[in-house]
Design goal:
CATH class of the largest domain in chain B: Alpha Beta
CATH topology of the largest domain in chain A: Pyruvate-ferredoxin Oxidoreductase, domain 3
Strand order of the largest sheet of chain B: 2-1-3-4-8-7-13-9
Number of domains of chain A: 3
Helix content of chain B: 25-40%
Oligomer: heterodimer
Strand content of chain A: 15-25%
Strand content of chain B: 15-25%
CATH architecture of the largest domain in chain B: 3-Layer(aba) Sandwich
Number of strands of chain B: 14
Shape of chain A: globular
Number of helices of chain B: 11
Structural class of chain A: alpha/beta
Number of domains of chain B: 2
CATH architecture of the largest domain in chain A: 3-Layer(aba) Sandwich
Shape of chain B: globular
Radius of gyration of chain A: 27 Å
Distance between the termini of chain B: 47 Å
Strand order of the largest sheet of chain A: 12-11-13-14-16-15-22
Helix content of chain A: 25-40%
CATH superfamily of the largest domain in chain A: Pyruvate-ferredoxin oxidoreductase, PFOR, domain III
Order of helices and strands of chain B: HEEHEHHEEEHEHEHHEEEEHEHHE
Largest interface: A-B, 69 and 68 residues
CATH class of the largest domain in chain A: Alpha Beta
CATH superfamily of the largest domain in chain B: Thiamin diphosphate (ThDP)-binding fold, Pyr/PP domains
Number of strands of chain A: 24
Radius of gyration of chain B: 23 Å
Largest sheet of chain B: 8 strands, mixed
Structural class of chain B: alpha/beta
Largest sheet of chain A: 7 strands, mixed
Number of helices of chain A: 21
């Protein structure tokens, strides 16, 4: 993978992890490194990893915050498995993250932070930077970052506290040197951010950034510098986007294309909150946001808005889904368009609020009382969240039905370049409104979509009542047993009616063979990377990824039967596997992981090779 | 704003019948809900609101069947959550006249949280809380307004819960309109409903309602024929607090406590009803006054002005558009910063 040329080691891709105390500014550094790398251009994916405590005590293990950047000259679909380099701003950061580093990987440590007090808090008996074994296993570059940053600012009138806060830019500057990145984009960023508010601060940060970069040049601190060639990126206009931002934009785009206004109601919950926060800034797009008193109220407000003719939407995470489930049942039986986003996190109960998991799949399908089927779709990458959210709005409108969109903490916080779609390529969405000239029957249906005809308050002569009680096909309350049976079937058929328009599945690798890897949601990057790499090495293995979990794509059954074995990697104990086994009666294998972190490409690769070699 | 609203230049004359649905009304014979339904239908006919602009929203309970009996837009939602759905409807379209029908269990027990927030947000919605001090639809369990010691199937030796005072609850949430009426006085109900409708902001109306099956005569000691003169105090803005058969008794303050005086000998001391008083002290005095020592106030207890949530949210939208211009696709997709990869 690497070769030496003119002092640089060329690499196809590199993973760098910036780690420090939550107050050390590691997220900012990671973001800057990312924004610089996209201009190269490199293919890129990132993932932040921060503690659930807002400010854990300084220097502790619990207070470590990290940001991982994966950049490359070829396709980059995940934030990367093991980091090639670790920037550790204190002993706790080294303690937490060293175990993930590749053998021989680069450690850039702020030696000034390795004080007896910090070492003790991190659980080190002696200074690891003095440990010969560490030096033999990794390339250790210990720099007095704190000292050099403050030294660079010795003429500045900033307070010592302010000077100390610039040290993250020193680490960033040095990293730029190691990885041959330009520093100008960061200088532009600093100027845009601080030049007006505080020119002194802007100047100080730039000086420290340069000091970090020049230290590399003058002191030859490392054995190697690395070069990652430009990636062959498809022409177009790009922006960097996280999964939650993309969901917000997708919902707005769906509303715009329907000619209806978006009313989003949410309640703060990690990791879904940033969707509500993002949408609150789009009032001039006729987006209204209601921060409700609780999770139940949030969906109630959205349902009310839908009933009144808006695009009603809400977003939450697992615990909130539990609270919303009764209202989801109401939306199912009242047959109202609605989008419910679940940004999944580790459970049960409060679980792992800041960590990712895919364990709410069965809840999404079956987590309501009674026969209460709902369409369930899943996003597969941060930028795909835009298209997935748009599609959720599209389905909700077209079929007069509440739709669950599953995302997860990994997609929500991860970000990647997004090639901007052309607005003209997005379809117009048409609400199945009643013809005001005809007598209105609330539960009259479109024969193809089975959507019930909608009428909204304020429309003359279309007064009607909806509610949670069972009704007949005219909307009149009915406790008749045959009617209940019929309506149960209709509600199920409505979901199945979506299947006709599911786009064909994309298959990576051969169309038939020994092994198919079947995935859904946020595992897309890891699965596809593993399969593409194996294909490139001549190993015959295939993969496909599900957007639709309910209904399942019509051709899936046939596809599965073309392979001797089916492997389903999931960040749960085998929920899709259970569905596939029950539905298609095949002996699907599960690759399960419930550790609060996404799959590594290598984990999937190893399992594939193991199965092929058995 | 929804474009579907068709503004009718001249409103057609409406009558009670226009609001009657073909559904059979299924409340128990003798239930107080019948009189409330009738009064509300008659009120709606007189409000000058286009029929299609009324929306009835309810939760679960006997009272929550209400939307099915009103020929308007209606939404029978889930237990306790009607305030949330109503908020969504009103925010979506502030032109609508939105009415929440709830009960003491639906509105103050399972839905207490939502009621609290609906009131403090001052959404321009009318809440009719039917208080019969019992769970009726589940066949007779004590409710949050049942008196301490109430014996029911779930409290055979007496309930241990201190009852909630709905008006005090509404006052605690700083509701801008708080009123009380009774199911056996259609004229007063209609006056109160009209006042609730006229109020811009949240209107909270407690209705003493009789459950003929599970808690019959619960309010008779107050509104029964023999008791009403001495036990009820009808409020009128700007008029003294008088009650009794010939209005011979009045309420005055003794320190910070009310006391009953002979109105014929000490008229100057008697409190004048001022529902617009911003200080909650006077409202609290009325909200907490009642049997056995005092008459129970009826009518509009408090009515103050504050901007409504639904108006404010639309003002924010308009202000954002005025400041930033209406959002465009370009702005939506491009955001703050993009980069372009040119074809090689």
């Amino acid at each position: 993978m690497t070769s030496s040329s003119s002092g640089f080691r060329e690499m196809k891709s590199v993973v760098v992890r910036f780690a420090g105390d939550s107050g050390d500014g590691m997220q900012i550094v990671g973001e800057r490194f990312t924004d610089t790398s996209v201009t190269v251009p490199n293919a890129i994916a990132t993932f932040p990893d921060y503690p659930s405590e807002i400010r854990a005590p300084i220097g502790t293990i619990a207070g470590v915050s990290a940001f991982q950047v994966h950049f490359g000259s070829t396709n980059v679909l995940t934030p990367g498995d093991e980091p090639d380099a670790l920037v550790a701003m204190n002993p706790a950061a080294l303690k937490v993250h060293l175990k993930d580093l590749v053998p021989g990987g680069l450690v850039i440590a702020n030696s000034a932070a390795f004080t007896p007090e910090n070492l003790e808090m991190a659980g080190y008996a002696t200074n690891p930077l003095d440990d010969p074994e560490l030096h033999s296993n990794y390339e250790i570059v210990a720099i007095d970052i704190t000292g050099l940053a403050t030294e660079a600012l010795k003429d500045s009138s900033l307070t010592m506290r302010e000077k100390l806060r610039t040290k993250n830019f020193f680490a960033l500057g040095f990293s730029y040197w190691v990885y041959s990145r330009p520093i100008q984009p960061t200088i532009d960023y600093i100027n845009a951010k601080w030049a007006n508010k505080s020119p002194q601060l802007a100047e100080a940060n730039i000086r420290v950034l340069k000091a970090g970069y020049f230290l590399g040049e003058t002191a030859e601190m490392t054995r190697n510098r690395y070069m990652v060639a430009q990636a062959d990126v498809a022409p177009g206009t790009y922006r960097k986007i996280s999964g939650n931002e993309a969901i917000a934009l997708g919902l707005i785009a769906g509303a715009k294309k329907s000619g209806r206004e978006l009313l989003f109601s949410g309640y703060p919950i990690t990791p879904a909150t940033s969707i509500l926060e993002a949408l609150a800034n789009y009032q001039h797009f006729d987006v209204q946001t209601v921060q409700a008193e609780d999770e139940i109220a949030a969906i109630g407000v959205a349902i009310g808005a839908s009933f009144a003719g808006k695009i009603g939407a809400t977003a939450t995470s697992g615990p909130g889904m539990c609270l919303k489930s009764e209202f989801m049942g109401l939306a199912v039986t009242a047959e109202l368009p609605l989008v419910i986003v679940n940004v999944q996190r580790g459970g049960p109960s409060t679980g792992l609020p800041t960590k990712t998991e895919q364990a709410d799949l069965l809840q999404a399908l079956y987590g309501r009382h009674g026969e209460s089927p709902m369409p369930v779709i899943a996003a597969n990458s941060p930028s795909d969240c835009f298209r997935a959210a748009f599609e959720a709005v599209q389905l909700a409108i077209k079929h007069s039905i509440p739709v669950i969109l599953l995302s997860d903490g990994y997609l929500a916080n991860g970000s990647e370049p997004w090639k901007l779609p052309d607005e003209a390529d997005l379809p117009e969405l048409v609400m199945p409104f009643a013809d005001p000239a005809l007598p209105y029957v609330a539960f009259e249906r479109n024969p193809e979509t089975l959507a019930r005809t909608q009428a909204i308050p304020g429309q003359v002569g279309l007064q009607h009542r909806v509610g949670g009680l069972e009704k007949d096909n005219k909307g009149c309350i009915s406790h008749d047993q045959e009617n209940h049976s019929r309506m149960t079937l209709v509600r199920a058929a409505k979901v199945e009616a979506l299947a006709k328009n599911i786009p064909p599945l994309t298959i990576t690798g051969p169309a038939q063979g020994k092994l198919l890897v079947l995935g859904w949601g946020g595992t897309y990057g890891a699965i596809t990377s593993a399969v593409e790499a194996l294909n490139a090495e001549g190993v015959a293995v295939s993969s496909t990824h599900l957007r639709y979990l309910n209904p399942l794509p019509p051709e899936l059954g046939e596809l599965l039967k073309r392979f001797d074995q089916v492997l389903i990697p999931e960040l749960n104990s085998g929920q899709l596997s259970m569905m596939i086994r029950a539905r298609y009666l095949i002996d699907a294998l599960t690759l399960s992981k419930v550790k609060g972190s996404p799959f590594k490409i290598s984990e999937i690769r190893e399992r594939i090779l193991q199965l092929l070699n058995d | 704003m929804a474009t579907e609203i068709t503004n009718i230049p001249k409103l057609p004359e409406l009558s009670r019948k226009d609001f009657v649905t073909t559904n059979d009304v299924r409340w128990c014979p003798g239930c107080g809900d019948y009189a409330i339904l009738n009064s509300l239908q008659r009120t709606f006919a007189e409000l000058g609101v286009p029929r299609e602009n009324f929306v009835m929203v309810s939760g679960i309970g006997c009272s929550s069947r209400f939307p099915f009996y009103m020929d308007t837009y209606g939404f029978h939602t889930i237990h306790g959550r009607a305030p949330t759905v109503a908020t969504g409807i009103k925010v979506a379209n502030p032109e609508l006249s939105v009415w929440v029908v709830t009960g003491d269990g639906d509105g103050l027990s399972i839905g207490g949280n939502h009621m609290l927030h609906l009131l403090r947000r001052n959404v321009n919605i009318n809440v009719l809380l039917f208080n019969n001090r019992i769970y009726g639809l589940t066949k007779g369990q004590y409710s949050p307004t049942s008196p301490f010691g109430t014996k029911t199937k779930t409290s055979p030796t007496g309930s241990l819960d201190n009852p909630l005072n709905p008006l005090l609850f509404a006052l605690g949430a700083e509701a801008t309109f708080i009123a009380r009426t009774v199911d056996n006085n259609p004229k007063h109900m209609m006056e109160t409903f009209k006042a609730a409708h006229a109020h811009q902001g949240i209107s909270f109306v407690e209705i003493f309602q009789n459950c003929v099956i599970f808690n019959d005569s619960a309010w008779d000691s107050i509104y029964g024929k023999d008791n009403r003169d001495d036990q009820m105090l009808y409020l009128e803005a700007g008029k003294p607090l008088l009650f009794g058969k010939n209005k011979t008794k009045g309420i005055r303050l003794n320190g910070l406590s009310p006391e009953i005086v002979d109105a014929t000998t000490a008229p100057a001391d008697i409190l004048i009803h001022q529902p617009e008083q911003a200080s909650p002290l006077y409202s609290q005095l009325l909200a907490t006054m009642g049997a056995p020592d005092f008459p129970t106030p009826m009518g509009v207890i408090r009515q103050i002005q504050r901007p409504t949530y639904d108006a404010l949210i639309h003002q924010q939208t308009a202000a954002a558009k005025a400041k930033k211009g209406a959002g465009t696709w370009q702005e939506l997709l491009h955001g703050k910063s993009t980069w372009t990869i040119k074809p090689t």
